[in-house]
């Protein structure tokens, strides 16, 4: 960490900062410039949270040098993590596609979709039983009945199940049915939910918050790992910008950046990012070409009747065509689907 | 609601949309332009969530005309709401200042701060007992012990207590001690927490999420009101932008806009928005001049020793000077503190 | 266009708006709802700029239905435009790569780079002779001497030349040497430069401004087309967001969106977007997979000595390896490089 | 400047960086940590532009410690600059209000507005003769005829004139008529225009670009000052964010921040920021309370007939009422209007 003292900071103020840092076990390097004095501090980065250096008199700014996360970093683990979901491996040479409806609406809808996406090559079925909705007047999900429908679809098709957890009180319930727990974008910094999921014995898909930096996303993953759950799959799903034609701006550079800073697998959700089904195909192709380890795609047998996010759902036919296209890109990347 | 059909939409596609809307009880106005056909639909806006119009063939876009919220809107209630906290009134001619430390750290710290801010004219004491922190390695709060300290400070000073709720499982516990429940910025769309707080018999300070639109903020308030809790105080605390000198960009125009669209009182938190105590004074002055009904300000007896957010905390002396300044602005606004 | 009247707008106010619109030749559809009255207006969209409807009493908001651009739109021309640069075609099945240094620094640097990128398969040489720099103390370019060096490189390699125009006073000078004029991101809304370039007899690469919406980008293209220059190539180069690890956030969804709304070819500049050479390869691959018609890539024989943007420049070796990789993606897309 | 070397950087790479910096005259401080080596470099910051340190092998990132600007900084000049416009002083205890129409439309319109705003207490008349417009089909200004009208209004009222320069070719023409040259938000980084204006013998209002950081804004001011024009008045006019209810988000914290980092006066334009006249009053009040040295406000005798930006224009009556209100806030600030 570098502490930049204000021009005009007194000798006493500088010494005060040094004493503070040394008291916490940091080793100090002092650089006295013409205009400013700079204090370099080397030591245990997790102790930085204990001090409010910027509040000390004479301090202009504090520049962190090391990332605030540890377990998720490439420094902690240099080679790529492979997250196992039963016999499936995320982060290896196989690219996995998670597909299914936004919300579990009925047994027929889910079973039909499961059959279709399985036939097209998806390995995981997605579907929400608890729906966090912007409007209190919108459909809120079938809850445990929805989870049972997903479990039945797994029985029939062999697909694994990924579904969202939204409330610390129901994590255990959801974990009884799901193969992968999903933490939604708006819950990325719901730290009490993260702590609960950290104790569950299930892999987790952690969506990036729509206005989270990559560093904050990795810090949320650190919550899961420091709580004991090392099976974290990161998911980019679009960020909020001033551009408004699509729902969000898919930040595909987050894929190579997250894989550069961290050892965790990264998947992409082009459905929520674009919000319009016509743009899912090019963004799914691009995601694979950018190095994504998987995709999360909304498929609905009848998008115009969907209770949630119909405009961004593919029909089974469109999904099947998409799978053919992305297989070719995976091949160029030396991977397979 | 206006449905804009794509150029080239067929007669059949247009009729399909009309049938769908009429089936849901909407009244239809059809405008056939040279380039595009436009369908106006008038009816119960809360039913719009049931339909995925943009997924229907031939539909280019859907333009909502009415706001998606109802109970928080000026249409629902034309005059300003006054939220009562015991004998205090938010939204009337008195401007209330909530002050205190970011986190409850010790009995001494809280009692000392409470005395000081009370003497300077604050009417409410703030302090966090449960702390949602970006880093799992940072101080997480004193929990119920912290709540007890706040209650003792209330006994001694007569100040009301505002403190954050972070987990649906502890809302009831917090409500036992607090006068006002605070929903933090990152929990603004934690809908399961909102639903729980909606059933609590306490006023709520609802912070705007750092990347929430004003409309989404009002929708979160709608969750509280539609769940039965009408005592909602909105709080602007800065939004995330590309500008990085300060922690966030305080959006003071949100004050008159939220008061234009809604009848709820609006307060401002310049401490979190700026993240640097030097900028709190001008932004607090500006907030009152923009029409805010109150302020939320961090005060700590020794900012450089604070376990949380020291750099943005005022000393009791600075806070006292600030109170003198904002009283003059309040006077210009025809209000008092 | 839809005019939404405020709840409580008087009959007289509504009639006033209708009179105004009818006076300008618009055809009117009136929808009187329970809460609000809506006026639909159909007519010549270019006349909308003449009226300040939102300033009229009783008007709540105005919702445009048609895009504000005409010549760049898919409605104006349904099939893809192919922009010719000598014998090269942009927007056809060949994908073109423009490569070269950020700035022309010396004859040797440019000639060496030109040979290398030509050998690797680039068809166009890029290089700035006039450099718009954030700092007045930074290298500002070789000006006409730089243009002469670029022309010599063209002689030797057969590469076409793309270079930036920055000032209406030097457009003619630059056009004497260049095959393609580039309008930089920060000049996207320099309307007096656009008007001058519109009269030049050269194709134009129009970069999207770092905080421009796609609609504003297309409006800038409309300036060029309405001024007589139909040979416009759009270039996405990253937008400014709160995410700060990379220089900008490359908005690859802008590629399919711009091609959906417009008939113009779209290329991508991953060098400026990422600002770090390590991330250029995945983003270039992704750009082709998203449907881009070309790439603009910085190559420098010795990035660490570059006077401008060294950190984002590829060495000739890395560029050559990249070309091999993107050829495979182009092949999957049914295109070639 | 701090150079952070990647973990695993070789001794040779570290020495290479040190040699490079010492060769440019920098003094070096080396800190070898367990995980990373950090190189501190002290020297002439304007030489940093000559080196592409981040492109050197083994370098992870470069952290600037000093601001990139010099002449605009508080280090260069510790006390507030006062910019003189004839007998008026910007940055002293008087707050100046610049008022008038967005565009000069006719002699009658300008003369009437000038009389009205002068009577209400404005000291400067604004009005655009050259209009940079997003749409090529919109009204583009009366050009020199407009300037003549403004000059006539000055004759009659004694108001000073501020008007926008948009093209380096017409700076001299505009400077012949205007008292203050305005650089519009979209031209903030039109460096060739800045260089031309730097040589004009007139004070300049420099608007912040809608997506410019405060640092970039100050760098644009540095262009003017390093080119010889020290009479720069900064103007905050709203930034682009995801919030879309108002045209832009007025960043009032930019006022104290710019005044903290720089010695230049800062004014605020609430008209462009909000885009809706109803919100101008609270934001103008807040701007004064935040410490602004002046305001720029659109006034039009008949907003609904304005050729440009009618919805954000005040009527003369509303403007007059506003002046009364802000005088009271100025008084609280120990200033006058």
Structural classification of chain A: alpha/beta
The third-level CATH topology of the largest domain in chain A is TIM Barrel
The H-and-E topology of chain A, N to C, reads as: EHEEEEEEHEHEHEHEHEHEHHEH
**What integer is the average pLDDT of chain A?**
93
Oligomeric state: homotetramer
What is the number of beta strands of chain A?
A: 14
The count of helical stretches of chain A stands at 10
> How much of the sequence of chain A is in beta strands?
15-25%
Tell me the CATH superfamily of the largest domain in chain A.
Answer: Aldolase class I
Q: Give the strand order of the largest sheet of chain A, numbering strands 1, 2, ... along the chain.
A: 7-8-9-10-11-12-13-14
Largest sheet of chain A: 8 strands, parallel, barrel
Reading off the top of the CATH hierarchy, the class of the largest domain in chain A is best stated as Alpha Beta
Radius of gyration of chain A, in Å, reads 23 Å
Share of helix of chain A, binned: 25-40%
If classified by CATH, what would the architecture of the largest domain in chain A be?
A: Alpha-Beta Barrel
Given as residue ranges, the uncertain stretches of chain A (5+ residues, pLDDT < 50) are none
